[in-house]
Amino acid sequence: MTVSSADGPVESKFSLVKLAPVEAVLFDIDGTLCDSDPLHYYAFREMLKEIGFNGGEPIDEAFFIEHVAGKHNDDIARDLFPDDFERGLKFVDDKETYFRKLVKEQLKPVDGLYKVTKWIEEHGLKRAAVTNAPRANAELMVSILGLSDFFEAIVVGSECEHAKPYPDPYLKGLEVLKVSKEHTFIFEDSVSGIKAGVAAGMPVIGITTRNPENLLMEAKPALLIKDYEDPKLWAALEEVDQQADVIKAIA
Predict the structure, then answer these.
(1) What stretches of the chain adopt beta strand conformation (E)?
(2) Are 222 and 194 in contact (CB under 8 A)?
(3) Which end of the chain is more exposed for a tag (fewer CB within 10 A), N or C?
(4) What is the spatial distance between Cα 147 and Cα 125, in angstroms, rounded to a whole number?
């Protein structure tokens, strides 16, 4: 399989066909299930401006992508407040409270999400959400999206020895579902998350919800898609189905 990029196809380390028969699918949450990054960006921008960060100049999206998107709050706190980690922790905690208020009013699923969740249910696959978000955020977003009963587990980075970009959260997802990495794939939207999935030994389908395609490509996804309506995704899943039928016929 090849990875599609703006500059042409790039050979991928993984082929989704090799996963057949698929046992499980793991999802990130922010930017993967829902387009929540604009809400995170707004909360960070407004709250940082309020405390005079960067001389009172609002942060831009490039700053958000580099310093915040996909990262664990502890790492964000260290990055934004290198001389006062405790203040940083308090800030990101307050930001999450504000974010949850925004989420209740404005959260929307990524296009085609319920099409792919239906495919997963019809195939009887196991599934878990694996996130660097605080558990309160994760459970709230999953609930608003109507997926509380869809997911068998929610794995949170802060409850693992290391959060993403380390592989620990995704390895824990495998452990919780009692499935193998040889028959599991991942949906992710951030560099940090893609790196975590690849390090855990699974193919990752990257979603270009907000993060630049060229940055996601550097993390070596097996496939890049715009959203869950992308024909490239359904062509890949059709190949997986066909290979599973071949294996079943041989058995």
Answers:
(1) 2-3, 10-11, 24-27, 126-131, 153-156, 184-188, 204-207, 223-225
(2) no
(3) C
(4) 15
Q: What does the CA dihedral 73, 74, 76, 82 come to, rounded to 10 degrees?
A: 150
Of the candidates 30, 6, 3, the residue with the CA atom closest to the CA atom of residue 15: 3
- In three-state secondary structure terms, 145 is coil
**Can you give the pLDDT at residue 211?**
87
Report the 10 Å Cβ neighbour count for 146. 12
Calpha distance 73→60 (Å, rounded): 19
pTM, entire model: 0.85
Known catalytic residues? 28, 30
What integer pLDDT is reported at residue 29 of this predicted model?
Answer: 97
Q: Which DSSP letter does residue 22 get?
A: P
C-alpha 28/C-alpha 52 separation (Å) is 32
What are the tens digits of pLDDT across the range 84-135? 999 999 999 999 999 999 999 899 999 999 999 999 999 999 999 999 999 9
> CA 179, CA 25: separation in Å to the nearest integer?
10
Strands (E), 51-197: 126-131, 153-156, 184-188
> 138 in helix, strand or coil?
helix
